[in-house]
């Protein structure tokens, strides 16, 4: 099974395990993460969360540049018999844990015999903080977690922190803007996955058509798409109808507004 092309990947470009599966960028991210954790253990974190700037630097900053500081939260979960610590952020949708991710993590953890990810190639789209990819990795899958370029640093750090020394395959991280140059970066003749996972990727945004195109691109014969979502808006229901027309679908689990779909391509 080929991995994502190197022009789109942040992380190892071939399937490896353990420390050998990290490139220099991942190692730097881990070192920064360790420094942050040591800082938190040693006392109260500096509210600015950065080094003091010189007077010259402050004078050079344009007046319109906002000063925005926050301390990222850590949330603790337990799946696959392991404590999972996820660092979140307050600056984007990708920095939060959403209900459908928790629902799908629970489903995968409690239905291992019916839906085994062991030794399967798995792609997650819209991975966000990476919780779902962490769980899939701990369940024995070879995972590639994808999202927009600007959120990959936190995604990679969460994956490394929670899977290092506990997984069969080192998870990979890649940039994947929906509907943007898919065939060029991820030709269907090369990149195939056993499972494509998506959780709470349908919400109030303007890229639902691109999302459906991306789902179609990766869900080819032999691939199973598992999509979990909490229905919030009328547009969610509209997308759901388009999704059902595009794929052969069934419902794995349902609880009021929360639904987990399993889909395969129409041949």
What would your notes on this structure say?
- The chain is of the alpha/beta class and 267 residues long.
- Helix content is 32%, strand content 21%.
- The chain has 8 helices and 10 strands.
- It has helices at 24-42, 55-60, 99-110, 131-138, 152-163, 182-185, 208-218, 234-246, and strands at 9-10, 74-79, 82-87, 121-124, 142-147, 172-175, 195-199, 224-230, 247-255, 258-265.
- The strands form 2 sheets. It has an 8-stranded mixed beta sheet with strand order 1-6-5-4-7-8-10-9, sandwiched between helices. The chain has a two-stranded antiparallel sheet with strand order 2-3.
- The two termini are 22 Å apart.
- Residues 1-28, 39-55 and 61-71 have low confidence and may be disordered.
Please supply descriptive tags for the structure shown above.
two-stranded antiparallel ribbon; disordered N terminus; 267 residues; eight-stranded mixed beta sheet; globular; 32% helix; alpha/beta
Brief digest:
This protein has 267 residues and is of the alpha/beta class. It has helices at residues 24-42, 55-60, 99-110, 131-138, 152-163, 182-185, 208-218, 234-246, and strands at 9-10, 74-79, 82-87, 121-124, 142-147, 172-175, 195-199, 224-230, 247-255, 258-265.
């Amino acid at each position: 099974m080929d991995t994502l092309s190197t022009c789109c990947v942040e992380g190892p470009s071939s399937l490896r395990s353990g420390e050998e599966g990290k490139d220099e960028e991942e190692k730097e991210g881990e070192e920064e993460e360790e420094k942050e954790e040591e800082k938190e253990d040693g006392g109260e974190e500096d509210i600015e969360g950065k080094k003091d700037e010189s007077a010259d630097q402050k004078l050079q900053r344009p007046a319109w540049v906002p000063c925005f500081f926050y301390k990222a939260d850590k949330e603790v979960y337990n799946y696959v018999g392991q404590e999972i610590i996820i660092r979140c952020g307050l600056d984007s949708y990708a920095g939060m844990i959403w209900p459908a991710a928790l629902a799908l993590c629970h489903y995968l953890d409690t239905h291992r015999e019916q839906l085994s990810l062991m030794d399967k190639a798995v792609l997650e789209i819209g991975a966000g903080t990476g919780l779902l990819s962490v769980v899939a990795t701990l369940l024995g899958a070879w995972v590639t977690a994808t999202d927009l370029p600007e959120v990959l640093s936190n995604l990679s750090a969460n994956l490394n922190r929670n899977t290092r020394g506990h997984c069969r395959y080192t998870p990979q991280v890649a940039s994947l803007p929906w509907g943007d140059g898919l065939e060029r970066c991820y030709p269907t003749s090369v990149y195939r996955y056993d499972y494509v996972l998506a959780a709470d990727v349908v919400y109030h945004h303007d890229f639902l058509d691109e999302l459906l195109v991306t789902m179609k691109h990766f869900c080819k014969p032999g691939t199973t798409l598992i999509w979990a979502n909490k229905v919030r808006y009328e547009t969610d229901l509209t997308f759901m109808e388009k999704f059902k027309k595009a794929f052969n679908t069934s419902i794995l689990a349902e609880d009021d507004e929360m639904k987990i779909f399993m889909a395969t391509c129409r041949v």
